[in-house]
Write a structure and sequence with these properties.
alpha+beta; Arc Repressor Mutant, subunit A; six-stranded antiparallel β-sheet; 12 helices
Length: 307
């Protein structure tokens, strides 16, 4: 396997969330994109994206709205960036978006929704004006944090499901009992909170944890076949099918693309420190979830074989 430890992260600057946003936001990220076509991988993490400069053309030929919410996504997105494109993104922890925007998260699934269609018109105009008035990119980050803090003052209108990520290992019956909900009510609340079914969420957790290791080139075995088993897949073919479906590439292709500095691989070009800081929540419940998925694959496979 290629050694990608020497590959520098793509051109970006990250900012920690305001302390009052740290329970729902993972990061604020300003990123400069190369002019290329690319696949944006599927993710359980919704994003708020503000186009600062340039444009992103989506697969249907439309342009990404200036301020949009994308995901969570069950499939990869194909896009094309123009020269000198910069965006500001906010990554939200799974299950936390509805508490801010007062919409069920499934309304945003597999889509890029214009925030003008989400906020009341006067509030959206305020967002536009304040972001436009902010001078530097870092000033825009400060303004966006303040705007999101303003949303937290509004009374939420969506009943979310406060479920730690690692609870996805529990059976549906155990989860219904834990929340004192019937099966159908639990399924509706889960979809409204996470934007996907529990089954899809479990699939995404497995693939997402494997992807983070592929991106950081810290793999649990010497061969892809053994990696697939450790990641919780039936075999290498199963792993490759999931990765192609969710990223457009096999794990080997991602590592080769990073090593070759392929511009189209920019969504995967983060070093190990950035991966931890940008994509792994520090909340204890979510840390437990990530640790389960990074180091607990074999334990879960053993449990499945015993059933």
């Amino acid at each position: 396997m290629p050694d990608t430890s020497h590959i520098a992260a793509a051109d970006h600057t990250s900012f920690a969330p305001h302390p009052m946003l740290a329970d729902c936001c993972l990061h604020f990220l300003i990123k400069k994109l190369p002019a290329c076509s690319y696949h944006l991988p599927a993710t359980t993490m919704p994003l708020l994206v503000v186009m600062l400069k340039g444009a992103v053309e989506l697969e249907d030929g439309s342009l990404l709205p200036r301020i949009s919410i994308t995901g969570p996504s069950l499939q990869r997105f194909r896009g094309t960036t123009l020269s000198e494109t910069h965006f500001l993104s906010v990554g939200f922890m799974p299950g936390k978006l509805a508490g801010l925007f007062a919409h069920t998260v499934d309304e945003f699934s597999n889509s890029a929704i214009d925030v003008a269609d989400v906020l009341a018109a006067p509030l959206y105009r305020e967002w536009e004006e304040r972001l436009e008035e902010a001078g530097s990119f870092s000033d825009k980050v400060d303004v966006l944090q303040q705007l999101l803090l303003g949303l937290r003052q509004l009374k939420p209108r969506v009943a979310t499901l406060p479920m730690p990520g690692h609870w996805a290992y529990k059976t549906t019956e155990q989860l219904c009992d834990a929340f004192d909900l019937g099966k159908r009510q639990f399924e509706r609340r889960f979809l409204a909170t996470f934007g996907m079914t529990l089954r899809s969420y479990r699939q995404h957790q497995r693939y997402g944890a494997a992807l983070l290791q592929v991106m950081s080139a810290v793999l649990p075995a010497r061969t892809w076949a053994d990696c697939a088993l450790t990641f919780g897949y039936a075999d290498q073919a199963h792993m490759n099918r999931d990765f192609v479906r969710f990223t457009g590439h096999t794990p080997a292709q991602i590592m080769r693309g990073i090593s070759a500095r392929d511009p189209a691989m920019w969504p995967f070009c983060f070093d190990g420190v950035d991966i931890d800081r940008l994509f792994i929540p520090t909340d204890s419940d979510y840390v437990a979830s990530v640790q389960d998925h990074r180091f607990g694959y074999q334990h879960n496979r053993d449990n499945q074989q015993q059933r």
